[in-house]
Amino acid sequence: MEGQTTVNGKRSCKGKIVFQELFSGLSNKWRPEIKFAGDPDYEFVLYKANSTNLYVKDNALHIRPTLLEDTYGEGFVTESNGLDLGIVCTGLYGTLQCVQRPRAWIVLPPVVSAQISTTDYFSFKYGIVEIRARLPAGDWIYPEISLISRSELYGPGYESGRIRIAVTGGSSDQNRHLFGGCTFGYSEMARRFGYKRIASKNPWSDDFHTFKIQWKPDSISFGVDNQIYGTVTPPSGGFATLQNILQIDPMVAERWEGGTVLAPFDQEMFITLGVGVGGQMYPDLPEVNKPWNTDDPKAQLQFYRNKEKWYNTWGDKSELVVDYIKVFAI
């Protein structure tokens, strides 16, 4: 029976497994990013496909952040010649995504990590996503397990929404809180309004968990280990009616009005897996003792200068380990 799910633009039968990854190796389903991080979260990371940062072992995907200076040498963060990623860069060549040179208070990202996506192979709209994974531990580390708009019909980046399947801060005081939810835009309200949360007695990085979302035309539900802990449902007039609450641009809300009630989450999305560090994923809150301020142009430098403190919290579990991914049509 034909269902509501579309895969690469075509309808799929209800109940069918439309995507499955068991990680016997890193297949051509995945495109690794090779670029400097930037919009929308400006994490303090250079994404590469190094075997130390991205590898498959024992039928599981491992993504581990390391120090830039471990790869390029002590002091390279401030090396005046900078780093040009060349033609292998997956970002926009000639921009800061592909070439960066330190000057004054601007330094290279202190961290090398990895991010992969199905952008060239698989995108879908509506369905059930199930991912078994162990989340990373360590100060200012966070997992990227997300669905990202393929067409960006409603605008670039967060203007077309992002569905976060599982997010948790890596530090010991944040690691017991798991978040899943929807990102609507760049303001702090738009980033957090659609988040749902569940707490645990033990850190989420201690063991593997099964994360699940059910993405339907009128709602998105978030669950872990067979427990649904939150559902994002649009108001009757759609998310565009929340423009003032979300603090988004009126032009963006107007574009959403041209979609369904679930817009911007009514377009095909692809799967992204990665590990980020720092940047704008961590808000400036009194209870969050960050070594940088989000809006400070010296944020990356401040983070680098604090290296001894945060790097001492990283260890064997400072990696995202993914056992499998399955996507079912509804």
UniProtKB/TrEMBL annotation:
<dbReference type="InterPro" id="IPR013320">
    <property type="entry name" value="ConA-like_dom_sf"/>
</dbReference>
<feature type="domain" description="GH16">
    <location>
        <begin position="21"/>
        <end position="330"/>
    </location>
</feature>
<dbReference type="InterPro" id="IPR000757">
    <property type="entry name" value="Beta-glucanase-like"/>
</dbReference>
<dbReference type="Pfam" id="PF00722">
    <property type="entry name" value="Glyco_hydro_16"/>
</dbReference>
<dbReference type="InterPro" id="IPR050546">
    <property type="entry name" value="Glycosyl_Hydrlase_16"/>
</dbReference>
<dbReference type="GO" id="GO:0005975">
    <property type="term" value="P:carbohydrate metabolic process"/>
</dbReference>
<dbReference type="GO" id="GO:0004553">
    <property type="term" value="F:hydrolase activity, hydrolyzing O-glycosyl compounds"/>
</dbReference>
<protein>
    <recommendedName>
        <fullName>GH16 domain-containing protein</fullName>
    </recommendedName>
</protein>
